[in-house]
Design goal:
There is one protein chain. The protein has 676 residues and is an alpha/beta fold. It has 3 domains: 93-260, Substrate Binding Domain Of Dnak, Chain:A, Domain 2; 273-419, Rossmann fold (3-Layer(aba) Sandwich); 431-660, Rossmann fold, CATH 3.40.50. It has a 6-stranded parallel sheet, with helices on both faces. Strands 15-14-13-16-17-18 form a 6-stranded parallel sheet, sandwiched between helices. Strand 7 (317-322), helix 14 (323-333) and strand 8 form a beta-alpha-beta unit. The structure holds FE(4)-NI(1)-S(5) cluster (NFS). Residues 323-324, 340-341, 361-362, 474-475, 504-505, 547, 584, 586-587 line the site of FE(4)-NI(1)-S(5) cluster (NFS).
Length: 676
C-alpha cells in the first residue's frame, strides 16, 4: 500500500520549467534556475503543470448564468454547413464569443479608467489645495488639457483679455475631467481630439461614448443572460466602451498624470534584473498608478532616508520598477526598470529585494508565496487590491497623508536590509535605455523648439526612408517564451524600416535587449530608418510609457494626420499595431480601441474568439470595411511582423507613395545601371 502511494507521488511529481525554453532573457533564465535550486515555484513551472482549458481559449464557454457553464468547443473537423452549437438558452457560439470578448473589453476599460479616476481625484485634491503632498507640476500641460475640456484659460475684464487665475483653471479642469466618468448627458469630450474624419465616422456608427462608466456598465447589462444576442450589436457596445477607454479613461489618466508629475522628456537609465544592487536597500515598486510611486521616489531621495539606510549598513537606496509603474517612473525620473510582468517573482528570488510595494493590476498573488522563502516584505497599499497571505503587510495609502505613508514604506524596506537570509544572487545583465518620448517630446525631437511638429516623420514616410510606424505594446504571457515574441516582432519591424512606438511590457522587453538606444539603429535597422534615427538622434524604438499611455500612441497617430500629406484619418496612413504576448483584459481593450481608431492590430499567442469562426471573421475582415482597422492573429513573431508590414505596404500603395520607397531601396547596382 505504502509503495502504491509512493508510486503515485512519483507520478504526480511536478514538472519544472526549462529555463532556456521559458525565457528569452538570460537574466531571467538564471533566476528560474536559481528558483529550482532553492525549491521555489514560479509561474514558469506552473505553466508546465497546468494547461489552459481548450474551450475557454476558443472563447466559447459561457458561464454568465447558473445553468452553465455551457461549453461549445469547435468540432475537430471544423464547421461544415450551419453551425448548430447552442448553449442551454440557445446562445450560439457567435453570441457567446462576442459576449466574452466585450466582457474582456469591459474589464480592461474598467481597469484603465478606474486608475484614471484615482488620478483625477488626486488632481482635484491638489487643485483645491486639500493636500500638501501633490502639486501641479506642468502648467503648460494643464492649459492644454483645460482647452481640450472646454475650460476657459482667459477672462475678459473691461474689454481686455486677461490670463485666468491658474488655480481657478486647475479646479475647473479637475471638476470637468472627473465629470467625464459619470456625466448624465452629452458625449465624451476627448473624442474630438481624434481626427475630424474619425469623429464623424464614430458619430455615424453611433459609437461615441456618453461617459466612461456607463459604457462599461452597459456591457455588463447586455451580456447578462437573455439580453443582447446579436454579435454585431454586442460589438457595437464593445467598440463604444473601448473608445471610452482609449480616448477617455486612459487618455485622461495620462494627461492628468503629466499635469501632476510632469510631461516626459527623453531620459537615460538602465533595465533588467541587474539594476538591483547587493550593497543597497532594494525597494521595488510594482503596479500601475504613479500616485504612490511618485511619493516613494521623492521620499527615498531625501538625505534623511539615505542616511537612515547607511545607518543600517547599506550604501544607499536602489529603487527600481516592475510592470507599468516601472515605465511611469522611468519616463519621468529615470528610475531603472527591474523587469516586466513575468519577472516579478524573479526579482524576489535574487534574495536582494528588501521590499516590494504594490498598488493595482498585474500583481501575481504568488509573489507573497515566493517572498515567504526570502526576507522580502510584500506591501499592499490600495484598498481595492489586497492579498490573503499572512506575510503581506497592508499600508493603506491616501493622498491626504501620502508622504507619511511613503516614509513608512521606505523605512520598512531599509529596516529589512539586515534581515536578508538567502545568499544574494543578482544577475549581472542590464542594458542602457533612453525613454520619455511623449507626443510633446517626440514633436520637439523631430521638429526642434520653434517648429514642434511631426512633419519630419511624415516627410520621411512619404520619401520612403521610414516605411511606416507600428505601435507594439502589451503584456507577457507564460504560454509562450518570455520576451521572445516582443523582441522578434520589433526586430523584424525595424529591420524593415518600420519605426516602433512601444509601451508596457513590450517596452521593458525591448529595453533589456538594448533596442531603446539611438546606437541600436545602426545595428538592427534597415538603411532608411537607420539614417533617420541617426540624423534626428532617436532610438528606432520609442518608449511612450505605460499601458494607459497607449493613448499617447493614438495622439501621435493623430499628429501625423494633422502634419499633412498622409491622408485625413488614422486608417489612411501606414501604421499598424501589435501585442505579441498579450494576456490581460486590458490588452483586449487597448487592441480594440486601436482597431476602431483605424489601426490594423495583430495579437500573438492565442485569440479568444477562435471557436466562433463567423464572429472572428467579422473582427478580422468585416471590421476593416466599417472602421478601416481590423484585428489579426499570428503566433509566429516573424510572420506576425510580416502581416503588419504587408498592411503598411498596402496603405503606402493606397496613398500612392509606394513608388518612393522602391527608389529608396535601390542598391548600388541599380544606381550604376541608372547612371549608365
Ligand atoms: Ni499593459 Fe499587460 Fe500589465 Fe502593463 Fe504589462 S502585463 S496590458 S503592459 S504591466 S498593464
Amino acid at each position: 500500500m505504502a509503495e502504491v502511494k509512493e508510486e503515485k507521488k512519483v507520478k504526480k511529481a511536478k514538472k519544472l520549467a526549462d529555463p532556456v525554453a521559458a525565457s528569452y532573457d538570460v537574466a531571467s533564465q538564471e533566476m528560474i534556475l536559481r528558483a529550482h535550486d532553492l525549491g521555489v515555484e514560479t509561474i514558469f513551472d506552473r505553466a508546465e503543470n497546468m494547461k489552459p482549458c481548450n474551450i475557454g481559449v476558443q472563447g466559447t464557454c459561457c458561464k454568465n448564468c447558473g445553468m452553465g457553464p455551457c461549453r461549445l468547443p469547435l468540432p475537430k473537423a471544423g464547421i461544415e454547413g450551419e453551425d448548430e452549437r447552442k448553449g442551454l438558452c440557445g446562445a450560439t457560439a457567435n453570441t457567446i464569443a462576442a459576449r466574452n470578448f466585450i466582457r474582456m473589453i469591459a474589464g480592461g476599460a474598467a481597469a484603465h479608467s478606474d486608475h484614471g479616476r484615482g488620478v483625477a481625484e488626486v488632481f482635484l485634491a491638489a487643485a483645491r489645495k486639500e493636500t500638501d503632498d501633490y502639486h501641479i507640476k506642468d502648467i503648460d500641460k494643464l492649459l492644454a488639457v483645460a482647452a481640450d475640456l472646454g475650460v476657459d484659460t482667459t477672462v475678459e475684464e473691461d474689454g481686455e483679455i486677461l490670463d485666468r487665475d491658474i488655480d481657478e483653471i486647475a479646479v475647473e479642469t479637475a471638476e470637468v475631467a472627473l465629470n467625464e466618468w459619470g456625466k448624465p448627458e452629452g458625449e465624451l469630450l476627448y473624442v474630438k481630439k481624434a481626427p475630424a474624419a474619425r469623429y464623424e465616422l464614430w458619430k455615424k456608427l453611433g459609437v461615441i461614448p456618453r461617459n466612461i462608466d456607463r459604457e462599461i456598465v452597459e456591457i455588463m447589462h447586455r451580456t447578462h443572460i437573455g439580453v443582447d444576442q446579436n454579435y454585431k450589436n454586442l460589438m457595437k457596445q464593445g467598440s463604444r466602451a473601448a473608445i471610452a477607454d482609449g480616448w477617455g479613461g486612459s487618455m485622461l489618466a495620462t494627461d492628468l498624470q503629466d499635469i501632476l508629475f510632469g510631461t516626459p522628456y527623453p531620459v537615460a537609465a538602465e533595465a533588467n534584473l541587474g539594476v538591483m544592487k547587493e550593497d543597497m536597500v532594494n525597494l521595488i515598486i510594482h503596479g500601475h498608478e504613479p500616485i504612490l510611486s511618485e511619493m516613494i521616489v521623492s521620499v527615498s531621495e531625501t538625505q534623511e532616508m539615505i542616511d537612515y539606510a547607511k545607518s543600517k549598513g547599506a550604501n544607499g537606496i536602489q529603487l527600481s520598477g516592475i510592470c507599468c509603474t516601472a515605465n511611469e517612473l522611468l519616463q519621468r525620473h529615470g528610475i531603472p526598470l527591474c523587469g516586466n510582468f513575468l519577472q516579478q517573482e524573479l526579482a524576489i528570488i535574487t534574495g536582494a529585494c528588501d521590499a516590494m510595494v504594490v498598488d493595482i493590476q498585474c500583481i501575481m498573488q504568488n509573489i507573497a508565496n515566493v517572498a515567504k522563502c526570502f526576507h522580502t516584505k510584500v506591501i499592499t497599499t490600495h484598498p481595492i487590491a489586497r492579498m490573503e497571505q499572512d506575510n503581506v503587510i497592508h499600508v493603506e495609502f491616501s493622498e491626504h497623508h501620502a508622504r507619511e505613508d511613503a516614509e513608512k514604506i521606505v523605512r520598512m524596506a531599509i529596516d529589512n536590509f539586515e534581515n536578508r537570509k538567502a545568499e544574494v544572487m543578482i544577475p549581472k545583465h542590464k542594458s542602457l535605455v533612453v525613454a520619455g518620448f511623449g507626443v510633446e517630446s517626440t514633436a520637439y525631437e523631430l521638429g526642434g523648439t520653434f517648429r514642434k511638429t511631426f512633419f519630419t516623420l511624415n516627410s520621411n514616410i512619404i520619401n520612403g526612408r521610414v516605411r511606416g510606424v507600428a505601435g507594439v505594446v502589451g503584456c507577457n504571457n507564460a504560454r509562450c517564451r518570455h520576451n521572445e515574441g516582443h523582441i522578434q516582432v520589433v526586430k523584424e519591424l525595424i529591420k524593415n524600416d518600420v519605426l516602433v512606438l512601444t509601451t508596457g511590457c513590450n517596452a521593458i522587453a525591448c529595453a533589456t535587449e538594448g533596442l531603446l538606444t539611438p546606437e541600436s539603429a545602426k545595428v538592427y535597422c534597415g538603411d532608411g530608418l537607420a539614417e533617420v534615427c541617426e540624423t534626428v538622434g532617436i532610438p528606432p524604438v520609442l518608449h511612450l510609457g505605460s499601458c494607459v499611455d497607449n493613448s499617447r500612441i493614438l495622439l501621435a497617430a493623430t499628429e501625423v494626420v494633422k502634419a499633412g500629406g498622409l491622408g485625413n484619418d488614422i486608417s489612411e496612413w501606414p501604421v499598424a499595431g501589435s501585442a505579441p504576448e498579450w494576456m490581460s483584459e486590458k490588452a483586449i481593450s487597448i487592441g480594440h480601441y486601436f482597431v476602431v481608431s483605424g489601426v490594423y492590430t495583430v495579437f500573438g499567442v492565442t485569440f479568444p474568439t477562435s471557436g466562433a469562426p463567423e464572429f472572428q471573421k467579422y473582427l478580422f475582415e468585416d471590421f476593416e470595411k466599417i472602421y478601416g482597422g481590423m484585428w489579426g492573429f499570428e503566433a509566429d513573431p516573424v510572420k506576425h511582423a510580416q502581416l503588419m508590414i504587408a498592411h503598411i505596404d498596402k496603405k503606402r500603395k493606397e496613398l500612392g507613395i509606394d513608388k518612393a520607397r522602391e527608389r529608396v531601396l535601390m542598391d548600388m547596382a541599380d544606381r550604376q545601371a541608372l547612371e549608365a
